[in-house]
């Protein structure tokens, strides 16, 4: 080991300078800092080499950092999203083959504040696999990174199907209908033609192609469609071994009546879908003798089994919610909890969070309290069975009481006049072999409304109870429509000779009266979809902004903690507010079951995370249903369907099969021999010679030309294949009622998916 010459900085001085520098500290910067010249620079080079050999520093001559540390400026790759914050590791990490790369918390302006005063990046800003150039620092709480810019993705996982061309070359065909180009495969691995695979770029250039990393199997096999969506949207599916072990231990906790209210004597019932995988809510009611009702909503006490900071809690936060597909559920909690000890099964004692309510004759909740209880569910009933018993006058007394209490709750709902958009929901029916058997519209029963109104009452009670206890609240927020969307709705309604004054107070009841005034039943679905498109997307947040759609001032999600992390947070706040903490569990489980200190201090971060997770699950569920619909229709290519135009673009029309919901494209090239101009403001295509117009709302008879089950994409053409089969529409005067020959015309873009926008 050489000794430093006179004039050279010491090893410690160099380390201190590297640590303090806000920019990359290389040989040039060190020489400048210590005013080195000539031979001293040569000596510095040797000293830096010695320090590297000694394990004091690492890096290249243009940027050094402490060995085992991180360069001051480096490229990072996001490997996790925790509580809305991106966690990253160095994109290239080779300081010591035995050392694992450090995890850095990415801090960015615009998000929640960290302890150091910086602002954390919201989950929507960065996603798994993203690469950023960042400035790093080592803080007392760990490594932090301040992103300078986002870099192009280098190793994103690609999902596709292997195709082999005539020359024997492999290609990766995308399963995303927005992607139209296949990628060359440089390394097939064990894959063969037709396999659904995961692949990654083989190099920095697109010409390098991709290499197959995982073979997933037959893309058209049962259960493949949900698997495609799960991988595409990055939904976590595997629980860590630590989380599974903790769940098993937690499930064995004893229930004792000494610390819980004993409600096992009440005939509480759970009314759920016939194929429900878990049961997290149950209800009971009886007359109070004064014209009102005593009611109970019992919810699975998940907070008893899932403690803040535990391994199961970490996995639940990562997921945010369960994702439901026609063929599977990706649960938020391990199965031993979600489908067993937390699920309110008939005849078994279960831990519950009980919401006790007093409801007057007008359906107003006049009092409430929350307890931790033991319940024994009298019966789990399918919606259809419960409805049949009521309709056929063979319902048990406890079921009859629920319906009678609901008549009061329905009065309160009518008084509030919430938004009434009872749009159909598609239901994919699968056979025993997992193959699609059909697509149907889900029937809407009074039994659904009974449960829904009991749940809404409990959710409101939870929000108001926490407000009264001055506890943090995770609100379910649905803001009123923006002015921009209202202007778009106003323009659209004008095409039906309907007026919307923007000077009045916009309420849900205003929209309800508007819909009630539509006399033409063929027009009503169009107006209903337009009103739906004008609504904002609901989200979670700690600052109350009300729930416009439900016409409620304070609303939280309390009733589904098995499948929604938001509800678990509300339960924990209730534990704190009502002093419901249980004795510390035995074994290696976290002691407290109330809110974690970090959540109590700042709910914004986790609210952003679970809102984003909900949108992710909704998109994956929607994609899966689209693929099932396309698979079912693949056997009906060539058939003619009545379709409604739902969107207009320069390249063609988007149309939906009426009564089914399959969305597809009608390319402008098949509309006829003439050129069609696109009028963006009016959202319509107009024939340059004939003046024929195609606009949102037109009902057309279209032939199904293609149905791609892999992408979920459909393609239509005119009934006769050439455009003349579509009844032409002549020019219209602006403001004239848009009805002619049974065709209905609108103005604005594609409607949102009905099923998911309807979530409360």
**Rg calc:** 30 Å
Unreliable sequence segments: 94-99, 110-124, 728-759
Structural domain count: 5
- The averaged pLDDT comes out at 83
Q: Give the spatial strand order of the biggest sheet.
A: 3-4-5-7-6
- Structural category is alpha+beta
Portion of residues within helices: 25-40%
Number of strands: 35
Q: What gap, in angstroms, lies between the N and C termini? A: 70 Å
Strand content: 25-35%
In this structure, how is the largest beta sheet organized?
5 strands, mixed, barrel
Number of helices: 18
Q: What does this 3D model show about the protein?
A:
It is a single chain. The protein folds into 5 domains: 11-66, Orthogonal Bundle (Arc Repressor Mutant, subunit A); 73-151, OB fold (Dihydrolipoamide Acetyltransferase, E2P); 158-219, Beta Barrel (OB fold (Dihydrolipoamide Acetyltransferase, E2P)); 241-477 and 541-624, no CATH class; 625-757, OB fold (Dihydrolipoamide Acetyltransferase, E2P). The strands form 11 sheets. Strands 3-4-5-7-6 form a 5-stranded mixed barrel. A 5-stranded mixed barrel has the order 8-9-10-12-11. Strands 13-20-19-16-15 form a 5-stranded mixed beta sheet. It is built from 18 helices and 35 strands. It starts with 10 loop residues before the first helix and ends with a helix. The model is unreliable at 94-99, 110-124 and 728-759 (pLDDT under 50). A hairpin with a 2-residue loop joins strand 26 (640-649) and strand 27 (652-657). Helix 12 packs antiparallel against helix 14 (524-534). The chain is α+β, with helices and mostly antiparallel strands and 760 residues long.
